[in-house]
Predict the 3D structure of the following.
Amino acid sequence: MAMTDTDPEVTRVATPSAAPIAIPDASADETLLAPFRIDEHPQGGFHGLLEVIPTKADYVLDLIRANSLWPLLSGLSCCAIEMMSTATSVNDMDRFGMFPFRASPRQADVLIVAGTLTTKMAGPLVRLWEQMPEPKWCVAMGTCTTSGGRFKRSYSVVQGVDRVMPVDVYVPGCPPRPEALIHGLMRLQELVKQRRGHWRTYVDRGPQRLNWEGDVR
Amino acid sequence: MTATEPREGRIPDPIDLDAAEEARLRTAAGIAPAVATAAGAEYAGFEMVGIPDRPPQTERERELFTVDEGEMLVNMGPQHPSTHGVMRLLLKVRSEVVTDLDVVLGYLHRGIEKLCENATYTTVLTYVDPMDYLSSMHNEHAPALAFEKLYGIEAPPRAQYIRALVVELNRVFSHGLMMGFLALDMGGITPILYGFINRDEIVEMLASISGQRMLFNFFRVGGVNWDVNDEFLSRLGTWHSKQLRSIRDNEALLTENEIFRARTQKMGIISREQAIQLGVTGPNLRASGVPFDVRKAHPYAPYAELEFDVITQQAGDVYARYIQRIDELKQSMHLIEQIMDKMPHGPVQAQVPGIIRPRPGRAYAAIESPRGLYSVYAISDGGPNPYRFRMRDPSLISLQVMPTLMPGHLIADTMAIMASLDPVMGGVDK
Amino acid sequence: MRLLTERFADAAPTLWTDEDTVEITIPGAGAADALRTLRDDPELDFWMLADAAAVDYGPTERFEVVYHLYSDRHPAWLRVRATVSRADPRLPTITQLWSGAGFHEREMFDMMGIVFEGNRDLRRLYMSPDYRSFPQRKDFLLPDDAADSPAAGVNPLERPETWDLTRFAALGPLNPLADAGAPTDASAVVADPAGEQPEPSPVGAGQTDASRSRPR
């Protein structure tokens, strides 16, 4: 209305002829972030968090993860006894924070595959691995899980657990001494702190269709 | 199969609800109504698989998979907190009471018998170690005896005594671990720690002569590989003077424990006739009253010269099997003392060529392992490899007791009974 | 032992051999009856079945099911060998005598394919139920060497060209006699003009170290 134009009480709104609001463009960030290029890095990528630059908080998080890795109780065979021996009083895994062997994969961080993996057990084990929430790591303990071990020519042994799941640390031995397993777990802790494991690059195939016997079909 | 009612005085009868009452209770509690889904349908993002997704192959399967009203099939899958290894139990339960049970094996089948047919006689002794991995010395003892029969030789006396010594040490720590696993399966965590302390002491002792903590490659056909050395003797003396302190601590925790007794007595009773019928051997058989011990029935190596008697219990329940193993453990200590007193001097290995081709023949050798009668049947055809190498593992046969024993017990007793049978999956699945 | 063979000679016609254990060979069809006699006869009294095994004598030969029995009265093990033809591998079950033979028979069925008539639960024990072969038969062959099998090299640990040896550069040169320093990446190994590096193992040609480990 013409009234508003001559009304002295109304202040004038900025007209479009004034300077526009400066919207910062992304080209400046390009040069800033070029050294990192996290989305192109093979072990990087945005996972829904704004983790562009590792911060001190990330360092603390990694330290927390490394020092309280909870293993899944997945002892298959003889190496399981040595794993239990590592976990008990004489060689104590509790000083690394690994005492609670969780029975449920939903609560576990590390899958220490201890013992021979057979073709019948491969299905359930892969299912366990896929049920574990990320971040997760896998330790292949013993020569049977590294490469088939002493059962190299057998008709029913999977020749190395890395044929069915990604492995971060291999601990050779038949069975590895508790000291060797602890060495392997300390290397795993270094991997965790440096974020060098497989869990960022592993492609999850989704829930598998298994038959009644638990075999992968 | 047999009893579907719970044993008297243990738990009250299961509540039988009709459909209207159940619907009312569910709405009151805020639980979703029970939806019967057909096989192939999808429920909450999961595809329902028919149970089982193939028709039953045998009569027994048909009987097992016929689920009555109020019954449920529960799968204690290959990965479960019980530490016996990978075994699968299919329980048919009616509200916590087990009515039927099926044992699914093979998750650790490594084809050892077939591998041994392609290996020389000495290599076979390395293949058999990881079978019953808690008693590796026993696993090697029987093939060594069988092959010696094929070769027609005998181990020198010192080797026989060393064999008996390591075999009894193996029995000591295996029985000690059984006590620990029995308590662990029932929820007690301390006894297994004691069991592993004991095991670590003994296993370091055995590592000082055989070089390995667990899968000792110690036996050779014709004797043992290395003689005892000073380190072994000093460790043995230290351990002996401590008189099994950790085992005694374990006993003090468990044997007079009210809760342990309530959970193990009158549970899982195997009668004498049942035990013989089912082929159970070893401490399980002797706990049911049958005085059968291979070391007395067919004495091998030095056991004919050692003094010991066959211990039996009469009750046949879980508690009796536990007490039986403790008594055998102490008996093994006495045997070790006798062996150390009587050990002769001499060579520890007979003169045997590297690759030997024995005459064609068949040999059978049986020994007493901590789980029962462990035997080897070997056939030779004159070549460097055995033609057929068959191992009879006691744990496999003891597991047949489960479907007969379990109906009428609660799910929680399942683990106690299984731990008392002490199966080791490496031996069960070969 | 002599006593035992004499006592059994008045039963059905059998052959016997004599060792530390006493051995009897019978045709397969009569196995269950013979074992029943052995168990129930008060003088023989073989109350314990120690072992039941199956033997395959060759791709064209027979099977044999071998039972080992124990008795308190006799000092030797008794071995009962029941011959079974390969074309029709059936045998009556002994689960009615000893229910503990159930798993033995399941294992024999699984590994050899011998069918036990009357066994209420004859399914595979070790292998998956849809497994089609019988592993312990003599015509089921294991690969001679895993390095020859088609699955060789699937595992990156079995392929030396994928090993990252640069991590060990701090330890020193691989061959102390070679003059050149450790290469920084694998491609430098092949294109070395001075020829000072040791010859790379010809993994790409399909020859692994395992193929040179014994004379072929």
Observations:
- The interface with chain A takes residues 47, 49, 51-54, 77-81, 83, 85-86, 88, 104, 106-112, 114-115, 118, 126-127, 130, 133-134, 192-193, 196-197, 199-200, 213-215, 425-426, 429 of chain B (CB under 8 Å).
- The two ends of chain B are 29 Å apart (CA to CA).
- The first strand of chain B starts at residue 42 and ends at 43.
- Residues 157-185 of chain B form the longest helix (29 residues).
